[in-house]
Amino acid sequence: MPTSELTDAATSVLTPDEFTARLRALAPRYWDRHPFHLRLHEGRLSRHELRLWAANRWYYQRAIPRKDAAILANCPDVEVRRAWRERIVWHDGSGPGEGGAENWLRLAEAVGLTREEVLDERHVLPGTRFAVDAYVTFARTRPWVEAVASGLTEMFSRGLMARRLVDMRRHYPWIAEAGFTYFTTRLQVIADEGRSTVDIVVRNCRTREQQEAAVAALAFKCDVLRAVLDAVDYYS
Ligand SMILES: O=C(O)c1cc(C(=O)O)c2c(n1)C(=O)C(=O)c1cc(C(=O)O)[nH]c1-2
């Protein structure tokens, strides 16, 4: 192929379908096949390991609304902001004792942690802290549409979360049902959120450069998630 054609192929804007396919092609980098998740789903985790997982995931959960607030702060599009602010409400709730974060705390309690030891973050590993903090910093400092694209890991998470509910109920029957509310309520919103996030990214990445940056953002986020599980796996 002549050099000019090669250059064109590398710089021309992808169609929405091509772009979406590039994003979806990152699925193998997602954390569903991580050895720690495989052990979790196969029922091979001890109570100690489940506690370490829940306490470290807490650090991720509490960062999500701060990441979303950074996106709101950087986004000039009122339509996007209107849709996006719902995410913060979902996680934080509208009052004490409500919201996704609260439900994660209930899961942590159901696996045997006290609320106090989750909230004071004594079990949070350095690797978790570095990875999750990098995600929040990314959202604060990169163009807002890249930060939105980084959240597209959720596009891969629905099947994993549905499977997790089945596998955890089966393999860890000692976990009280109230502990699973986080996942049951999350599954109800995730399909709609995933679709609208892809739409926002496709509509707002108008150049090939922006499209490539969005793909890179999603790859970065896959690495953030894997780094959290690497840390937990190493210490468990
Ligand atoms: O349980 C999971 O495997 C899983 C994965 C992800 C993800 O892929 O980022 C999220 C969640 N859960 C989740 O519950 C959640 O609220 C969430 C928000 C985000 C995000 O980046 O904005 N990802 C995820």
How would you explain this protein's 3D organization?
Helix 4 runs antiparallel to helix 9, helix 8 packs antiparallel against helix 9 (about 145-150) and helix 8 packs antiparallel against helix 12. The longest helix is centred in the first third of the chain and has 28 residues, at about 45-75. This protein has one domain (about 35-235): Heme Oxygenase, Chain A (Up-down Bundle). It is globular. The chain is built from twelve helices and no strands. The chain has helices at about 5-10, 15-25, 35-40, 45-75, 80-90, 100-110, 115-120, 125-140, 145-150, 155-170, 180-205, 210-235. It starts with a helix and ends with a helix. The mean pLDDT is about 95. The protein has about 240 residues and is mainly α. Pyrroloquinoline quinone binds near residues 151, 154 and 186. GO terms for molecular function: pyrroloquinoline-quinone synthase activity. Pathway: Cofactor biosynthesis; pyrroloquinoline quinone biosynthesis; Cofactor biosynthesis; thiamine diphosphate biosynthesis. InterPro entries: Haem_Oase-like_multi-hlx (IPR016084), PqqC (IPR011845), PqqC-like (IPR039068), Thiaminase-2/PQQC (IPR004305). Its EC number is 1.3.3.11.
